[in-house]
Amino acid sequence: MSSDLKENFAFRPGRRPAGPGTQPPAPRAAAEAGAGAPARNTNRPGPTALAAKVRTMAPSMTRSMQRVAEAVASDPAGCAQLTVTGLAERTGTSEATVVRTSRLLGYPGYRDLRLALAGLAAQQESGAAPAVTADIVVDDPIADVVAKLALDEQQTLADTAAGLDVAQVEAAVAAMATARRIDVYGVGASGLVSQDLAQKLLRIGMVAHSHADPHLAVTNAVQLRAGDVAVAITHSGRTVDVIEPLRVAFDQGATTIAITGRPDGEVAQYADHVLTTSTARESELRPAAMSSRTSQLLVVDCLFIGVAQRTYETAAPALSASYEALAHRHSPRPRTR
């Protein structure tokens, strides 16, 4: 077995068939094997989405595919001029690896990737492409920290929006809007995001619970059934405390949703719908938890607004009632001596 294949993530058998309009996550091994299977998102990424896709997928690629991805990301104009043989020689890989990388990025073949690279190069020349921010260093003045973080947050949000599979978002919203109950799992920074989603849903009258305790999460997941929804939030896609309750919910027949920066991670095995977040660069002073939280919150807000739209007749009165119930807590109290 080649070293590339050893690095591949093997998906376990036994997934239940996907429902109408649902695209099950493609195993990474199949994508790299060049079997001709389409990427998860059947819509070819545009130039902006290509840049986001490279940043998101590169960390989980094999070493040879990373070299191809890094080359097209760093020099789209130059790579757009190369044949498949030329890019393989430039990156020290094979033509097959170039084609596999193209497919993993969402293109049927290298020709389609070249067209997207030409479009990305044109954007960069016109100044339309967002700048890549420099890492924050320990002696940066606070004004530079503010500017760098603001630019990086913008890039993270743009990458997430460009890379989201809208069909998957719509399917997830449809399942949540009619759910009897919604459980949300997350730990650490993702746990804060899971709490945010649950409290938003509660305020529009949905039955939603956030579970940060892994034992309680599994205990509650056992009670789920068809018609319920379970949402797992994990940037890495391999957080055991999040994957385990999602697996239980999946086995119980609930509709399962994964919000993750690694669509080829283990969490996707148990997800009917996978919503991919951006994978921003890390630095010593800016851990992944910061950028992942930003992109996760965008996805959470999209889900919430989508559910609120679909349930507006009940959501609007519920939201008004929650505002009224809390209004007195926001009124200033008379000052006493």
UniProtKB/TrEMBL annotation:
Short name of one Pfam family: SIS
Domain HTH rpiR-type: where? 48-124
InterPro entries given for it? Homeodomain-like_sf, HTH_RpiR, RpiR-like, RpiR-like_SIS, SIS_dom, SIS_dom_sf, WH-like_DNA-bd_sf
Q: What are the record keywords, sorted?
A: DNA-binding, Transcription, Transcription regulation
Specify the signal sequence span: none
Could you tell me the superkingdom of the organism this chain comes from? Answer: Bacteria
Looking at the record, the residues that make up the SIS domain are 172-313
* Region annotated Disordered, chain positions: 1-48
Per UniProt, the ranges with Low complexity bias are 28-40
PANTHER family tied to this protein: GLUCOKINASE, HTH-TYPE TRANSCRIPTIONAL REGULATOR HEXR-RELATED
**UniProt name for this protein:** MurR/RpiR family transcriptional regulator
Organism expressing this protein natively: Streptomyces spirodelae
